Amino acid sequence: MTLIASTLNYKRPFLLGDLLISSRGATKSIQLPTNTIDVTQYLDTNTSLAVDLYQKVYIINKNVAIALAGVVTEMTEFLKEFTIRCSYYEPIDEAGIRKFIEEYDYLTKFKKSAFFILLMKPEGNMISVKQFWSPKELWKTTKSEIFEEVYACGTGADDFLHHTYEQQEFEASSEKGDILRAISANLGFIAKLLAIERVSLHTIKKNWGGGFETICFDGNSFIKIDEIAYVINYAQFDENGNLDLPFPQLIQYYKYYKDTLFIVAIEVTKWGRAENETEIVLTSNDCRVDVFPVPRLDLPIGSSIELPPSFSFLTHRLALGYALITKDNAILAPSLFMESNNMKVTYEDRKYVELIIDKKMSDLMRSKAKEVYPNL
How far apart are CA 67 and CA 255, in angstroms? Predict the structure, then answer.
């Protein structure tokens, strides 16, 4: 079991799921989008080892979404049967979902797994959120100023909830209850988790992580968020808490194509840098690029994964995670999400990558990190 979670940002529900699949008898080497070396050499071989990447959150129809964790065969069968049941109704209602949950044979078909289902239910001019989760005893919950209600299940649940509570400072131009605010909070939080995983493998050692999917409700239907670049930056504090411009070590671009999630992982060893009053422009052709296809659990056996015609991309949708390290190896991991014309990532397949960062944002991040430094 790994991690599935739900946040309810002032009536804006999100489902989050990690990608990692692990097994106790695993001997297979594996590379991850955050670490393109074989990570098994750093893991405790007495516990479960990472073996693969799969999607665990799904849009069933425009008003129903589900997250799954646990045993692959159990999750796959549950997903197939729930999808079939929902296809009988347009749309399926609360009673239909409860009937499926009550009738399902958990003792033989779902003994070591868990689910979280979201149903968006029209009520006059409003839409209410209905939540269903099981097993009840495996789910942990907390509340925070940023995320309001948080539910988590799996081996990563305690760490996940700790980080949601820890991330108390949040700035956004939109109001509570606005979908853009909810997106910023959740995607920025994922960037934080990816930065921690990059420098410490902390999540992988506890059998969760490897990447994260998000589902949100945009007011009309559920959507999976993609065409986003997660930019993982690294820097070390000097003895006075000052930072140079953090080095963007890794860019991960998420894009769905024919139901498969493709993660383009660009690991940069050297940047060319130019800047003006408003922008910092970083360009590199000195990078390693790996592509990670992440299929659905219910992909038919023997099916092949169709590749997109190109892995080139341009996006203004950036989530930046920072691993800021002290002399004592303490980690400060601030993060943020921005969708702005002042920031973008451009990747020309097999040629170059360019990252444009808002200079004011970068200066503000370093200034706030210095304020926190004495408490690390």
Answer: 19
For residue 108, what are the contacts with CB-CB under 8 A and spacing of at least 6?
Answer: none
Same domain, 197 and 242: no
CA 28 – CA 87 distance, rounded (Å): 37
pLDDT at position 363 is 92
Tokens representing 117 are 């289902």
Q: What is the pTM of this model?
A: 0.93
Shared domain for 150 and 25, answered yes or no, is: yes
DSSP type of residue 186: H
pLDDT on residue 178: 67
Average pLDDT per 10 consecutive residues for the chain, totaling 376 residues = 70 89 72 86 67 94 94 96 91 92 95 95 82 91 81 88 69 58 89 95 87 93 96 95 94 98 97 96 96 96 93 97 93 91 95 96 92 88
Same domain, 217 and 241: no
Q: Could you give the number of structural domains in the chain?
A: 2
Which residue, of 223, 257, 281, is where some domain finishes? 223
Q: How many CB atoms lie within 10 A of CB 259?
A: 13
Residue 71 shares a structural domain with residue 208: yes
For residue 252, give its domain range: 226-375
Q: How far apart are CA 107 and CA 315, in angstroms?
A: 46
Alpha helices in 106-230 (DSSP H): 106-109, 157-166, 179-200, 202-205
Same domain, 210 and 67: yes
